[in-house]
Amino acid sequence: MLNKKLVLLIFLIIFVTLPSIADTIQGLPLHVQKITNNVIRMWVGDYMSSTAISAIATQKGIIVIDTTDVSSIDQGFRKIIAKEFQRDDFKYLINTHGHADHTNGNGVYNDCEIIAHENAIELIKTNFSNFSEMQKFFDGFKLRLNEELNSEKLTDNKKALINEQIKFYSIAQESMKANSKPTFPTKTFKEKLTLDCGDATLELFQAGGTHTTSDIFILYKEKGILFTGDIMADKWLTDIPGCLANFKIQAGTSQDYITLQQNWKELLDKKDQIKLYIPGHWNAELSPNGFQDRYNYFITLIDAVKIMSQKGQDLPQFVAAYTLKNIYPQLVDSPGFSQSNHIGSIYHLYSIYSGKISASLEIQKILQKDLFIAQFPRLREEILKARDKYFILEEDINRVGYFLLQQIKEPTGAIALFEFNVQLFPNSWNAYDSLAEAYYTNGEKAKALQLFKKAVEMNPKNENGKNFITRIEKEL
Ligand SMILES: [Zn+2]
């Protein structure tokens, strides 16, 4: 343990000089980090989890990895790269994946070959398809931030974070208005691509299936640097991890997972040559052990779910036994992991390997005000008629019901969904408890009281139910 840490420490001392504030871009603090004599990494902001882009000077030209979500900031970065390297022969831009905060600035490099995984195209299209929605989203987001700033007692750090975000999103909005057309990759690949840049060889590996379907690993062979985009991190440097908050198997097909496993394994076999792992946002780090641990999790979980579904074993039983705590105790507190992410990964893999449809995912497709009320009865009949085609988990339906109740504010819909759960799982006290809560929210207190009593009868330790009973008895 001590040895591994020591090795990592030496790498950090050799390869990473402390970031220094060189300047500002549009009023935001700029950080430029010199990784080696020909590799730099830069980002804006001291508090928010912004994208860190990298640039590599090679014999055949400059290679840039990723853009931010704001073109005007990338224009600034492009100038800084040229100044740092004393040249401006930009040759390639590589997108680590298709998310807006890694591709929106692609237009700044439209004189270059832009390289990405083939699945990035669809994501970029989606990013730009909802332009007016995005503007509305920014407006709403800024409004909420301003409210937060005025209403709460905040620590200095939190205040600084909010101020930085408000400034950033204002710049983003302006930049979007000026630049509302997507710039797509000019060269895409599927499983692997090698770029020969004279003194630098870059190996690009398909790695989609966790964060998005379009992620790639980029290995700069000569310097032993692996760029990992937003796939994973095992250390967060701030409280707001941003895109690196979740490590979840959620976006791939069975074929993607075969390829991802091979590619990841190939990189692990070269781990003696890899000296530094660079995630896609500045406020995260990844160690060789973190990389290995996530691979181990990935392959063992895939195997376990595959075997379970092939044997036709019971999914709820598997979920109850195969918890993060039981099977991967070392990962319980590791960045990106949570029991709910873990369950999400199991569901995704289960639907791939069993061929069954997740009932909760189907229900989530109609989770909109009015739409749910109109379409749920039909879906409910369909699920009941062909139960073998679906897999249905009580906890899952319960969670979606609360989303309807609390986020979408559709108590009638929530009542219908919780009633469905009671019908499917009549021995669950919690199914009754949730139904009671939905009736209460809908103002039907007598009905709620009756159901809370039933839930407490089934589970006398149900404190939530007991509290509600006392409250309702007073109110009636
Ligand atoms: Zn991302």
Ligand inventory: zinc ion
Summarize the biggest pleated sheet: 8 strands, mixed
Q: What is the CA-atom radius of gyration, in angstroms?
A: 25 Å
Whole-Å distance between the termini?
62 Å
Uncertain segments:
1-21
Overall tally of domains: 3
Contiguous helical run count: 18
Fold blueprint:
Layout: H1 2-15, E1 20-25, E2 28-36, E3 39-44, E4 53-58, E5 61-65, H2 71-85, E6 90-94, H3 100-103, E7 113-117, H4 120-129, H5 131-151, H6 156-178, E8 187-189, E9 192-196, E10 201-206, E11 216-220, E12 225-229, E13 235-236, H7 254-269, E14 276-279, E15 284-285, H8 288-310, H9 315-321, H10 324-327, H11 339-354, E16 357-358, H12 359-364, H13 371-385, E17 390-391, H14 394-407, H15 411-424, H16 429-441, H17 445-458, H18 463-475
Parallel strand pairs: 5-6, 6-7, 7-8, 12-14, 16-17
Antiparallel strand pairs: 1-2, 2-3, 3-4, 4-5, 9-10, 10-11, 11-12, 13-15
Spell out the key features of this protein:
476 residues, alpha/beta, Metallo-beta-lactamase, Chain A, Serine Threonine Protein Phosphatase 5, Tetratricopeptide repeat, 3 domains, five-stranded mixed β-sheet, 18 helices, 17 strands, disordered N terminus, binds zinc ion
Task: Describe this structure as you would to a colleague.
- The chain folds into 3 domains: 214 residues, Ribonuclease Z/Hydroxyacylglutathione hydrolase-like (Metallo-beta-lactamase, Chain A); 43 residues; 120 residues, Tetratricopeptide repeat domain (Serine Threonine Protein Phosphatase 5, Tetratricopeptide repeat, Alpha Horseshoe).
- Helix 15 packs antiparallel against helix 16.
- The protein is globular, with a radius of gyration of 25 Å.
- It is of the alpha/beta class and 476 residues long.
- It contains 18 helices and 17 strands.
- The protein is 51% helix and 16% strand.
